[in-house]
Amino acid sequence: MISRTERLLNHTVLAFVSILVLFPVVWFFFTALSPNQGGQLDFGNLHWGNFGTAWRLGGFGHAMLASAVITIGAVTGQTVLAILSGFAFGVLGVAGQRVIFPVVLLGLMISAEVFIVPLYYTFQSLGLTNSWLGLIIIQIGMGVPFGTFWMRATFRAVPVSLVEAAEMDGARAWRILWQILLPISRPAVLTLALLSFMWTWNDFFLSLIFIADPSIQPATLALGVFQGRHSVDVNLLAAGSLIVALPVLVLYAFFQRHFIRGVLNGALKE
């Protein structure tokens, strides 16, 4: 049993760490509200109009729509393929999986910079550069290796007796997956979707390479262009950065309990 002194010490340490983590965030937020171009803090004169100015000057309306389309498409594809491949490798057993699964995991070890040039010319020949569809396909391909590993570990942690009981009752593979395994693995699936959303939304490198048309560029590229045009407007840069980061922050705020539980469950699995 934890003593009162130990509990007080734990709370003190956690409070101190929380302050260290939150202080830069709060500082950045008030910088975005600064009426001064240089971003000097002025708590008595908060300028909320900085967000509207940044939104208008940065053209974030079209950019946020582009990011939403790309991210939703990529996250949906990554999650579905990860569930199916994780089920195949973790429960059904795939012929030659001792060779195929390590090959899939190579996607986690090879940096995008290694194959970006041949990938670009391949997509250019297919007419998929400078398009949302091409970027969605690339993001799906980049995310499937991790998703496969994640869902395989999740499904293999389910007691084998549960799957065997379902098979004895006449349940086929699809029913076992959708009605038994997925409800049990909901925190892990939600965590995977949130991670995929965060990685895809925050992507800059792939978007920079494959998207050249300013009218379809995602939010991260729009923020980069905005930074180049308004490098001296620190308050507007902070406001634009918060605008781009807002969807990720909102999703995490709503699903943080599921996210933390999914990560902790994943840490206890193989």
UniProtKB/TrEMBL annotation:
A UniProt-annotated Pfam family: BPD_transp_1
Transmembrane helix recorded as keyword: yes
Domain of life: Bacteria
Membrane topology: Multi-pass membrane protein
TM annotation in the entry: 12-33, 65-92, 99-120, 132-155, 204-224, 236-255
Domain ABC transmembrane type-1 residue range list: 64-255
GO cellular component labels: plasma membrane
Keyword Cell membrane included in the entry's annotation: yes
Gene3D superfamilies: MetI-like
Keywords (A to Z) from UniProt: Cell membrane, Membrane, Transmembrane, Transmembrane helix, Transport
Compartments, as annotated in UniProt: Cell membrane
GO biological process terms on file: transmembrane transport
Signal peptide residues on this chain, from the entry's feature table: none
Family designation: Belongs to the binding-protein-dependent transport system permease family.
Name this polypeptide is given: Raffinose/stachyose/melibiose transport system permease protein
Organism placement in taxonomy: Bacteria, Bacillati, Actinomycetota, Actinomycetes, Propionibacteriales
